[in-house]
Amino acid sequence: MTVTHTPSTDSRPPPPKGVRGRRALLALALLVGGAWSLTGLDITLARVLDAPADAWDIFKRLWPPAMDEALDRGVIGKVFESVYIAWVGTIIGAVLSLPLAFLAATNVAPRWIRIPVRQLFNAIRAVPELIVAVIFIPITGLGPWAGTLAIGLHSVGTLGKWATEAIEGVDTGPLEAVEATGGRWVSGMRWGVLPQIMPTVASFWLFRFEINVRASAVLGMIGAGGVGAELVSQLMFRNFPAVGAVLGITVLVVLTIDTVSAAMRRRIIAGAARTSGPDLDADRNAEALANLTGFRR
Amino acid sequence: MSDGGTARPVRPRPRLRTLGITAGLLAFTVFAANEVGFDASTSWEVWTNPLWEMFWPIPWDWVLDRSNVLDPLVETFQIAILATIIGCGLALPISFAMSRLTAPNRPTYLVSRSVMNVVRAVPDLFWAKLLVTAVGIGAFAGTWALSIFSLAVMVKLFSETIDNADPRPLEAARASGSRHLPAIRTGVLPTVLPEYVAYALYVFELNIRASIVLGLVGAGGVGRVLEAQRQFFRFDRVLGILLIVFVAVFVIEQVSVALRKRLV
Question: Is A74 helix (H, G, I), strand (E, B) or coil?
Answer without folding.
Answer: coil
